[in-house]
Amino acid sequence: MQGIIVLDVDMIDINIWSILFTVINLAILFVALRFFLFKPVRNIIAKRQEEADAAAKEAEERAAEADRRKAEYDKAVAKTEAEREQILAEARKQADDEYRKMLAEARSEAEIIKKDASTEGEKRKQRIISEAGKEIGDMIASATTKILGNVDESKLYDAFLNTMEDEK
Questions:
Q1: Could you report the per-residue pLDDT of 32-60, keeping only the tens digit for each?
Q2: How far is CA 30 from CA 21, 33, 35, 36, 46, in A?
Q3: Radius of gyration of the chain (CA)
Q4: Cβ distance 145 to 153 under 8 Å?
Q5: Residue 97 lies in a domain
Q6: CA dihedral 155, 158, 159, 164 (to 10 degrees)
Q7: Are 144 and 151 within 8 A, CB to CB?
Q8: pLDDT digits (tens, 9 = 90+) for 128-166
Q9: Rounded Cα gap, residues 109 and 115, in angstroms
Q10: 14, 61, 135, 156: which sits with the fewest CB atoms below 10 Å from its CB?
């Protein structure tokens, strides 16, 4: 009989004392493992959990601080932007005021130049008329002298000028 295993029943002997010692040994082993292995492992796990919790809390605090700083930064940027807009508005207003002032001065100067030119033109006109009057007077005196003979030219000239002034 080659492939069959035969068991001898006499070899297995059940003894109560053996079972009791095995249970006691298992209990001692359980207490020893619990005291020397499970308790330290639980302590290590608890410490690591505390460290993880502390790290998570610190990360939350840092995130809150970062959010607070970002809010401060955004507020500062908004304030700076508002100040920039105000400065630009003031600069535009000042430039516009300066432009209007320069324009008013230019118009005033143009008006003065126009009045001066008009006055100068009027003076030239009067001078030309006066010179023409003198030339005409001289021509008339010359013609009268030729026609009448030898008459005092200065009297004729004065009479002519008086007549011209009366007509004005």
A1: 888 888 888 899 999 999 999 999 999 99
A2: 14, 5, 8, 10, 21
A3: 64
A4: yes
A5: yes
A6: 160
A7: yes
A8: 888 888 888 777 767 776 776 655 667 767 777 777 777
A9: 10
A10: 14
List the one residue out of 152, 126, 123 whose CA is nearest residue 134: 126
* Residues 58-99: tens digit of each pLDDT: 999 999 999 999 999 999 999 999 999 999 999 999 999 999
- Domain annotation covers residue 6: no
Q: Is residue 106 part of a domain?
A: yes
Q: How far is CA 40 from CA 26, 37, 52, 54, in A?
A: 20, 6, 18, 21
State the total domains in the chain: 1
Domain containing 30 equals: 13-167
Q: What is the number of other CB atoms lying within 10 angstroms of the CB of residue 152?
A: 10
Residue 4 lies in a domain: no
